[in-house]
């Protein structure tokens, strides 16, 4: 096979609020930890075992501002994106590596009345002016990208890792 694919699909809960970094020229990046759980029954003991995996999600520009405004710790979200590994030299002189999920699409899955009900955002949308932290009546539905709803449905029997 000559082609390659770098695609990630996650459904999980935010481990913290979205942390924003703003740059000159109006661009910004938002980062947040996302927890996904794997639950299974140990065949030998019959015990139910739950493992939590943590992912760092990165969103850019307008998508980052939407995430900052409507997502908070504990919210459930569906993320699509690609894996990106970064490296840098630490203060101790050792090379450090991190693998992040660069989000391209997301869907809010937590029920918060009007605020996050099923909104979907394309993370590659053009940059706009920086948003302020005050809440206005703008609904995430106004940022909705026309596409069919994800076939993935939220599982009502979630165990939050925090």
TrEMBL record:
Single GO BP term: DNA recombination
GO molecular function (one): single-stranded DNA binding
Renumbered ranges of motif Important for interaction with partner proteins: 157-162
Coiled-coil residues: none
Pfam families: SSB
Superkingdom classification of source: Bacteria
Cellular component GO terms, alphabetical: nucleoid
InterPro entries membership: NA-bd_OB-fold, Primosome_PriB/ssb, ssDNA-bd
Keywords assigned by UniProt, alphabetized: DNA damage, DNA recombination, DNA repair, DNA replication, DNA-binding
Role of this protein: Plays an important role in DNA replication, recombination and repair. Binds to ssDNA and to an array of partner proteins to recruit them to their sites of action during DNA metabolism.
Complexes and interactors: Homotetramer.
Protein name: Single-stranded DNA-binding protein
Provenance organism: Galbibacter orientalis DSM 19592
Species lineage: Bacteria, Pseudomonadati, Bacteroidota, Flavobacteriia, Flavobacteriales
């Amino acid at each position: 096979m000559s082609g390659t694919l770098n695609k990630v699909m996650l459904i999980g809960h935010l481990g913290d609020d979205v942390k924003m970094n703003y740059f000159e020229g109006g661009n910004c990046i938002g980062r947040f930890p996302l927890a996904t759980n794997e639950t299974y029954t140990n065949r030998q003991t019959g015990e139910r075992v739950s493992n939590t995996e943590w992912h760092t999600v990165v969103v850019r520009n307008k998508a980052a501002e939407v995430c900052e405004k409507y997502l908070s710790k504990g919210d459930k979200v569906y993320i699509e994106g690609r894996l990106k590994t970064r490296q840098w030299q630490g203060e101790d002189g050792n090379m450090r590596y991190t693998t992040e999920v660069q989000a391209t699409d997301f869907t809010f899955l937590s029920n918060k009345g009007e605020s996050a009900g099923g909104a979907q955002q394309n993370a590659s949308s053009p940059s706009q002016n920086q948003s302020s932290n005050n809440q206005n009546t703008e609904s995430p539905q106004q940022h909705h990208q026309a596409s069919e709803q994800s076939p993935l449905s939220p599982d009502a029997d979630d165990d939050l890792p925090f």
